[in-house]
Amino acid sequence: MNVFWISILGSAGMALNDSVGWLVGRSGDVVIPRSKRIEKLEKKLQKWGSYALFGWALIPFPYDIVAMVAGYLEIPYRKFVLPVFLGRVIRFIVLGTGVVAIWGKVV
C-alpha cells in the first residue's frame, strides 16, 4: 500500500463528505440554530477564510459544523473544497507515515 495514494483517495472522500455539509449550510438558519459557538466560528471564518478551513482540516475536529457554517456564509465552493482537501491530504500523509514508521510496512 502506498501512503500517498491512500491519503489522496481518503482526502477526496472526506472532501466529498464535507461538501454535503457545505450544501446543508446553504439552507441557513433552518439547519444551524444561532448560538455563541456558531457566531464565534463565523467570525473566524470571515476573518481568516480559506486559511481557517485549511487549519481546521489538519486537526481531528468535527468538521461537519465548519462545513455547514461555510455554506451558510456562502463561501464559494472552490474556496471551500480546495483547502479542505489539501489540509486532509497533509494530515493523512503525516498519520500514514507515522503508522508505517511505528509498525513497519503495512501489508
Features of the shown structure:
107 residues, mainly alpha, 5 helices, 0% strand
Strand fraction? under 5%
Number of self-contained structural domains: 1
Overall body shape: elongated
SSE ordering: HHHHH
Helix share, percent: over 70%
Please provide the count of β strands: 0
Largest sheet: none
Low-confidence stretches: none
Going by helix content, strand content and strand pairing, the class is mainly alpha
Number of helices: 5
Rg estimate, integer Å: 15 Å
Offer a concise description of the structure.
With 107 residues, the protein is an all-alpha fold. Helix content is 77%, strand content 0%.
Structure description:
By secondary structure, the chain is an all-alpha fold. The protein has helices spanning 3-25, 36-48, 50-58, 63-72, 77-103. It is elongated, with a radius of gyration of 15 Å. The model has no long low-confidence stretch (mean pLDDT 85).
Task: Summarize the helices and strands and which ones pair or pack.
Elements (H helix, E strand, L loop, with lengths): L2 H23 L10 H13 L1 H9 L4 H10 L4 H27 L4
